[in-house]
Amino acid sequence: MKRAATVALTALAPISWGSTYFVASELLPPDRPLFTGVMRALPAGLLLTALSRTIPKGEWWWKSAVLGTLNIGAFFPLLFLSAYRLPGGVAAVLGSAGPLFVVGLAALLLGERASVRTVLAAIVAAFGVSMVVLTAEAKLDAIGIVAGVVSSASMGAGTVMTKRWGRPEGVGPLAMTGWQLTAGGLVIIPVAALVEGAPPALDGHAMLGYGYMMLINTGTAYWLWFRGIGQLSATSVTLLGPLSPLTAAVIGWAALGQALSPVQLAGMAIAFGATVAGQLSAARSARAAEGSFSSTEEINQNISMDLTDGKVRR
């Protein structure tokens, strides 16, 4: 039950990210994706760091910089470049392939051996997302495709390395999230200044949109995401990623009047079903690992008791 609650809370992160397109298109200044990236990450990072009253120490200065670059500083610009160079559907499909990167990296760096069911769930979820977002008019662009693939790889590597390095003793997920968002926002600033120039003038709608993006869409969402990474396997967390484009499609239908065809509805059902199946498979793997650990611990305890009693079983 505790695991189910953790999964549900972690799932709120990609669900929140699914609202990004609506907020950006309805409230924010047009053609300023990098400035938006800075406004999402840096204020939220500084706020969370201040609330946690903790700053990095020792090696965690460079570790936070690396994680912040992978999860935020490189991911945001590459994601936006992909979105601008490709139709939204193609970019979303490339993003939904992120779990496959995590499955491979988690096996190499964390020893998390994904089951065949888990891999199939990731593939089927990506296929379902493609049914929702791809259109016959979609055109491909080499730079956009490379940017989309690298952005997914960057986020995947950041997820795995966040799990591998963990957190310093006594430091909670709030501080870790603040460190990464701050580092990522600082990485984007020079890129935004070079590409987009001076910040735009902000009206009331823009302030409202950036406030939501900073507090809910980024600060709270990434805190839930990194908290989930600390309590679940990296593979289990990343399999929740397809909820983001599915949420975007639902918001587009409910708030913007965008029609959903039978094929899109079928794709939503397939992607959501695969996401649930992936979580069930990950839960079974986690229980199996816990059972194996308990058995090993019990054997060691029996051996220890035997030696203490001066006996050796044969």
For the structure shown, list the relevant keywords.
314 residues, mainly alpha, 80% helix, globular, disordered C terminus
Protein described:
By secondary structure, the protein is an all-alpha fold. Helix content is 80%, strand content 0%. The chain has 14 helices and no strands. It has helices spanning 2-17, 20-27, 33-52, 60-73, 75-85, 88-96, 98-109, 116-133, 142-165, 173-196, 204-231, 234-238, 243-256, 262-308. Helix 3 (33-52) packs across helix 11 (204-231) and helix 10 (173-196) crosses helix 11 (204-231). The chain is globular. The chain starts with a helix and ends in a 6-residue tail after the last helix. Mean pLDDT is 85; it is low at 293-314.
Tell me the strand percentage band: under 5%
SS-based structural class?
A: mainly alpha
- What about the largest sheet? none
Radius of gyration: 21 Å
Q: Helix proportion of residues, in percent?
A: over 70%
Unreliable stretches, pLDDT < 50, 5 or more residues? Answer: 293-314
Q: Give me the number of helical elements.
A: 14
Mean pLDDT value: 85
Report the strand count: 0
Distance between the termini: 41 Å
Oligomeric composition of the shown chains: single chain
- The coarse overall form would be globular
**SSE sequence, one letter per element:** HHHHHHHHHHHHHH
